[in-house]
Design goal:
The strands form 2 sheets. Strands 1, 2, 3, 4, 5 and 6 form a 6-stranded antiparallel β-sheet that branches. This protein has helices at about 25-35, 50-60, 60-80, 145-155, 165-190, 200-215, 230-240, 240-255, 285-300, 325-340; strands spanning about 40-50, 85-90, 95-100, 120, 125, 130-135, 220-230, 265, 275-280, 310-315, 345. Helices cover about 45% and strands about 20% of the residues. It is elongated, with a radius of gyration of 28 Å. The protein is an alpha+beta fold and about 350 residues long. It is built from 10 helices and 11 strands.
Length: about 350
């Protein structure tokens, strides 16, 4: 289809790629519609995988995923043989679209009265359980024509092949839901740490900003605990990095078990650093909880190969800072102080008074 490559680099996923099949997805298809519509002729083949739901129920989703991957591979082969410039997209759970420029797959029947722009071919059977209608775009003039083809083709595959505004609305709603699911999945990946399974630093920063928007110096304090494990290097050097990763996971689990609903535990920037966001928790209470965290971690790890302790920095809004940037700087200074003063302790920033 020309243009820049769609497939993601080896270092990051692409929002235009279907993770199961590696095919470009509905976002890629919609981005390429303008280029497609510049062509004077071409074929859109809509493919609906019949019985996928039954396969998932009877054999499990992993078997259904295998069927989807095989269909994707089969369609890629067919499309390439028809035109090396062709492209297959996965646009839904069991829906694929093959775009084949300047190459009708089979002789076309006359245009339908309802949709004279689109010449419709007979349904074809690709392989067991896979049916398809082909639509030739003779005079596409607007993006809506292509979307219309997809919707009409999808309903041609149903036992009742009538097309109505009600069905069009249902199709649009379904596609919106699928798009929202894709966006949610992308956000989940973007805001989750892949080692600990906890929220990552982006999620923590979002939680801090959101909490500060809701806090007021008079009524709604906010406290941060920056936790840093004291023994990750020992695990990495003596037991290997996999053991270090396991330490991070277990330590994160202990910390998460000490928090309340509405509070956030996130893996921070590196190593075994964690940020704990405590909306509505005042300074003295945050310090008390930081001390309790030190005790809980030391007690929970006494039987580990190398028992673990933590150093915790404590900073609060409004006592230590009145904005996000200053609050972050203060909690980092507090953590450095805890490390400097012997580890396995909680500390305020250096200029702060000790709680009474």
């Amino acid at each position: 289809m020309g243009g820049a490559p769609r497939i993601s680099s080896s270092t990051r996923p692409s929002v235009e790629e279907d993770p199961l099949t590696g095919l470009p997805n509905v976002f890629a298809f919609l981005l390429e519609v303008p280029e497609l519509m510049e062509r004077t002729t071409g074929t859109i083949m809509v493919v609906d995988v019949k019985g996928l739901g039954e396969v998932n129920l009877a054999c499990g989703e992993s078997k259904g995923d295998e069927v989807v991957r095989r269909v994707a591979s089969h369609l890629k082969d067919i499309t390439y043989r028809a035109s090396p410039e062709g492209q297959v997209y996965r646009i839904g759970g069991d829906e694929f679209v093959a775009v084949i420029p300047s190459s009708p797959l089979r002789p076309n029947s006359p245009p339908t009265p309802e949709y004279p722009k689109h010449t419709v071919a007979d349904p074809i059977q690709l392989t067991d359980g896979i049916s398809a209608w082909t639509f030739r775009l003779n005079y596409p003039s607007d993006v809506k024509d292509v979307i219309e083809v997809l919707d009409v083709a999808a309903y041609r595959l149903q036992p009742d092949s009538s097309y109505s505004p009600h069905r069009a609305t249902k199709t649009l709603s379904r596609r919106i839901r699928e798009t929202i699911d894709l966006l949610r999945e992308a956000l989940e990946l973007a805001y989750t740490d892949d080692i600990s399974g906890l929220p990552n630093h982006r999620a923590a920063e979002h939680a801090i900003r959101r909490a500060l928007r809701c806090q007021t110096p008079e009524n709604r304090p906010l406290s941060l605990l920056l936790v840093d494990g004291d023994h990750l290097r020992v695990y990495n050097e003596n037991l290997g990095y996999q053991a270090g990763h396991e330490l991070i996971r277990k330590l994160g689990s202990i910390l998460a078990g000490e928090t309340l609903p509405g509070e956030t535990v996130a893996r921070w920037l590196s190593g075994d650093e964690f940020m704990i966001v405590l909306p509505g928790v005042r300074r003295a209470e945050a310090f008390r909880r930081a001390q309790k965290l030190c005790e809980s971690v030391a007690k929970a790890t006494t039987q580990w190969v190398y028992p673990v302790t933590i150093s915790v920095g404590v900073a609060s809004f409004p006592e230590d800072a009145d904005n996000e940037e200053e609050l972050m700087r203060k909690v980092e200074e507090a953590n450095s102080r805890a490390k400097r003063e012997g580890k396995n302790r909680a500390c305020y920033p250096p200029a702060s008074r000790t709680p009474g």
